[in-house]
Design goal:
Elements (H helix, E strand, L loop, with lengths): L2 E4 L5 E2 L9 H15 L4 E8 L5 H17 L3 E2 L7 E9 L3 E12 L2 E12 L14 E10 L5 E8 L3 E2 L12 E6 L3 E7 L8 E7 L13 E3 L4 E4 L2 E6 L5 E6 L20 E6 L2 E7 L8 E9 L2 E4 L4 E3 L3 E6 L5 E7 L6 E9 L3
Parallel strand pairs: 1-7, 2-7, 3-4, 3-5
Antiparallel strand pairs: 5-6, 6-7, 8-25, 9-10, 9-11, 11-12, 12-13, 14-15, 15-16, 16-17, 18-19, 19-20, 20-21, 20-22, 23-24, 24-25
């Protein structure tokens, strides 16, 4: 069992006294690590720099952390001798640096993990964005419903009310189809003007499944492939009227994503999209199902993955984040904690200029 404890309500902002060591920040993070590791005295330490800090600055930060930990009576030992393992990620946001420590120990209840976070400011002589683009994330509400929503897709229509092939541009006013994937059905809706949100109910196709769904139920719509996937179930779908679906058992139980893992954000969902800004990785926050969430964009710069946008806040947890077939876009499903509804958004990435 994984026990996750956050050692700070929010990241504590520190102010550097001696560049580039950020001594106050190292002292604060070391204090949090010592509190999370207690009563242990021997720990294994690893530090990974995924920010735009150069190697010299990253090494100075690591040395400051080691000194502060030793000052608190903690010994850095090989992993085979350690009571506690501490993994530190030096990452970066738009406003400054984020230092995250994951503190892991093997306890009676299984693997226990605590997380400590400290935010370190940029120095006055540092360039704000280190040459990277500042991206902007925007969203457009497409669909909302009371029942649980796993995924959705919007399909432009061509003459005769048939959905257009994936990637085909259709003139405005030609209408659209919306496909909503629920735990037990695929539902189709039609609108003359999708921006009006005046969707009319159409065909509904049940999804048979012999085993109970897992608690972390997921679902994906793949329009170009003519498929819908859920844990242990795969459906071949004809999206053009009259819509049909043939579902069968599948060995696939977990959703597989090719997006890179962002250090310090391993607990969040991620998806990689291609846009006019280049390759962008969108990552959700690491909260639980009863908290608001965020989506943030990351890009590679000089061999490192760093934050490239301000976090986009949502009114509840992100239930699904998936690649849209239109470049530069993704599909976002949020469970709004205020209304109780499940909301489907199209998420767009805009390049900063």
């Amino acid at each position: 069992m994984l026990v996750l404890t956050l050692l700070a309500v929010g990241p504590k902002t520190c102010f550097a006294q001696l560049a580039p060591a950020w001594n106050d920040c190292a002292r604060s993070l070391a204090g949090k690590i010592a509190a999370g590791a207690a009563p242990a005295h021997n720990l294994a330490l690893s530090v990974e720099n995924v920010s735009s800090l150069d190697d010299a600055d990253a090494a100075a930060v690591e040395q400051a952390l080691r000194s502060e930990l030793a000052h608190r009576g903690l010994r850095i030992v090989p992993a085979t001798e350690a009571e506690v393992r501490v993994s530190i990620a030096l990452s970066e946001g738009i406003e400054g640096y984020i230092w995250t420590a994951q503190i892991e120990r093997n306890g009676e209840q299984g693997n226990q993990r605590q997380v400590a976070i400290v935010a370190a400011p940029r120095l006055n002589d540092e360039p704000r964005n280190h040459g990277k683009q500042n991206l902007t994330l925007s969203r457009r509400l497409v669909w909302e419903q009371r029942e649980k929503l796993l995924d959705f897709a919007v399909l432009p229509s061509v003459a005769g009310g048939r959905p257009a092939p994936a990637g085909r541009d259709v003139a405005a006013g030609s209408g659209s189809w919306l496909v909503a994937l629920d735990p037990d059905k695929i539902a189709f809706y039609e609108a003359d003007d999708p921006d009006s949100q005046d969707w009319r109910s159409g065909q509904t196709i049940p999804i048979p499944h012999s085993a109970p769904w897992p608690r972390d139920l997921w679902g994906s719509i793949h329009v170009a492939a003519g498929q819908v996937e859920l844990p242990g179930v795969e459906c071949s779908v004809t999206f053009a009227p009259p819509q049909t679906a043939a579902c069968a058992s599948s060995a696939k139980e977990e959703r597989v994503t090719a997006a890179p893992v962002i250090t310090g954000q391993q607990e969040g969902d991620s998806v990689e999209i291609e846009s006019s800004c280049g390759t962008v990785t969108l990552v959700t926050g690491t909260g639980d199902w009863m908290q608001p969430d965020t989506v943030e964009a990351y890009q590679r710069l000089n061999g490192k993955t760093i934050a490239a946008s301000e976090p986009l806040e949502t009114a509840g947890p992100v239930m699904s984040l998936q690649q849209e077939e239109t470049p530069g876009m993704a599909r976002l499903v949020v469970h709004n904690l205020k209304t109780g509804n499940y909301e489907g958004y199209i998420l767009s990435v805009d390049c900063g200029r």
